[in-house]
Amino acid sequence: MMETNTEPLKTIRDFIRYCTTRLYSSEATFNHGYQNPEEEAAFLVLRTLRIPLEYEEKFLDATLTGNERETVLNNISRRCDDLEPTAYITKEWWLTGFPFYVDERVLIPRSYIAELIEKNFDGLLPDPARIHSILDMCTGSGCLAILLAEKFPQAEVDAVDISSDALEVAEINIADYEFENRVYPIQSDLFENLQNTKYDLIISNPPYVTEASMEGLPQEYRYEPSLALVAGADGMDIIDRLLKEVKAHLNDNGVLIVELGDGAENFKERFPNIEVTWLPTSGGKDQVFMIKKEQLPDA
């Protein structure tokens, strides 16, 4: 633990600079959306104080109260000494410009599918205007389900997860966006509790981390629920089940879109006879795939 005299720290500017220095000298990694320690330090300090990010310049020279100092220093220690992710400390994370509540019950939202939603899937969907029923499988915090509801105002969205804890977080976000009448949280082990329900579009950002990879991940990932990360020796166990069961839950002309991180090679080895369309994202050309109902194998 880095020992330093914090008495000279007075203003928000001071604490952001101090937090930046602490992050640089810590073992923290920056794989949860921040570009650099400066950006993360500003977010951590400002949101600890509940100051909107757009007001940063206005408040930089404001002096902290005693209680504020204690809270900010404690949160800096949690991040730099305990390596707890900032999103869990502040209970907040942003995805494509939308804020979401998060805590340790859910994975910190990070998804290339969110990029595709923002860009209307680059015109790759057969007819977006005809999409009236959507499923977000493995919804976690519900962020993708909410982004889909924003982008497809004519559609209803089922937000499915095996974890009741995760769905409690999703319910918070659904209520925050006032989508209770369009986004429906459902507890289910994949399609187990969906009976004969069918959808025009199914998206999924399922667990896809290999067991070996999980062992080598930075400490920050240990705070996240392993149920939402690990999927067997090759990371394909959940995707395997998904592909076997999904066809019965797609309407005619329905589409499945799945994110699998760096698992493209494992996917091709596990499913050599399944032809998919890879959708380019900022993460590369093989992080997300799309497959139409007629291309899927029968169960």
From TrEMBL:
Any GO BP annotation: methylation
GO CC annotation terms, alphabetical: cytosol; ribosome
Top-level taxon in the UniProt lineage: Bacteria
Sequence ranges assigned to domain Methyltransferase small in this UniProt record: 132-212
GO molecular function, one term: protein-glutamine N-methyltransferase activity
Keywords attached to this entry: Methyltransferase, Ribonucleoprotein, Ribosomal protein, S-adenosyl-L-methionine, Transferase
Keyword Ribonucleoprotein found: yes
NCBIfam families noted in UniProt: hemK_fam, L3_gln_methyl
Name of the molecule in the record: (Glutamine-N5) methyltransferase, ribosomal protein L3-specific
Organism: Parasutterella excrementihominis YIT 11859
